[in-house]
Amino acid sequence: MRKVTLLTAAVLLSGISAVQAAFVGSETVNPVTVAEAAKMPDESRVTLQGYIVSHLGGEDYTFKDESGSIKIEIDEKVWQGLDVSPQDKVEVRGEVDTHKYKPTDIEVETIRLIK
């Protein structure tokens, strides 16, 4: 009887953990504008929505929304095979990178198309 009780408890507990582990939700994001991001402190986490309008070379691109434009840096691995044109609206998440002698830019960690 004791073995059955222990076995039942183990099965129930493993089922609870599986249910908790199965949830994959998205965090709530509040996009900011380029103008707002440009004024934020170094290493601030940001979400921007707009358009990648030009490739500046290497990992550098120009990102634009209704408030202005800013340079963004996107490592090749972040693209994950995604093809984006200047007409495609995207959401980028990343970190503000301020500099002493050059304009603020954004180090992009994720990018996705907005439908």
TrEMBL record:
<protein>
    <submittedName>
        <fullName>NirD/YgiW/YdeI family stress tolerance protein</fullName>
    </submittedName>
</protein>
<dbReference type="InterPro" id="IPR036700">
    <property type="entry name" value="BOBF_sf"/>
</dbReference>
<dbReference type="Pfam" id="PF04076">
    <property type="entry name" value="BOF"/>
</dbReference>
<keyword id="KW-0732">Signal</keyword>
<feature type="signal peptide">
    <location>
        <begin position="1"/>
        <end position="21"/>
    </location>
</feature>
<dbReference type="InterPro" id="IPR005220">
    <property type="entry name" value="CarO-like"/>
</dbReference>
